Amino acid sequence: MWQQDYRRDRVVLAYVAVHPGLMAQQIAHALGIREPGIARALGRLTGDGLLALAADSATYSLDSGRPAS
Predict the structure, then answer these.
(1) The pLDDT of residue 67 is above 60
(2) Residue 57's CB: how many other CB atoms inside 10 A?
(3) For 33-64, what is the HEC assignment?
(4) Residue 1: which pLDDT band, with cuts at 50, 70 and 90?
(5) Residue 63: what are its φ and ψ, rounded to 5°?
(6) Contacts for 38 with CB less than 8 Å, ≥ 6 apart
(7) What is the pLDDT of residues 24-54, one digit of tens each?
(8) Model-level pTM?
(9) Most buried among 17, 35, 44, 56, by the most CB within 10 A?
(10) CA–CA separation, 4 vs 58, rounded Å?
């Protein structure tokens, strides 16, 4: 199970890197992954400091070390 989560996180991170500013639902739809799985991946990636949640608290982008717009 851990390896599957790791692979999913990498796919999500790569997708958000190319398509910043999307909501979790949009990412889930684009990748064909159910929303609970996307939510867990986004939570891990945000917690690890790899993704940032935008000021609107709905969209994600790579964490550049400054607040997302």
Answers:
(1) no
(2) 6
(3) CCHHHHHHHHHHHHHCCCEEECCCCCEEEECC
(4) low
(5) -80, 110
(6) 12, 24, 27, 28, 31
(7) 999 999 999 999 999 999 999 999 999 998 8
(8) 0.82
(9) 44
(10) 25
Q: Collapsing DSSP states into helix, strand and coil, what is residue 26?
A: helix
Name every residue whose Cβ is closer than 8 Å to that of residue 53 and which is 6 or more positions away in sequence. Answer: 46, 59, 60, 68
d(CA 30, CA 21): 13
**Of 7-11, 14-18, 62-66, the least confident:** 62-66
Task: For residue 27, give the nearest of 69, 17, 4 by alpha carbon.
Answer: 17
Read off the tokens for 38: 């996307």
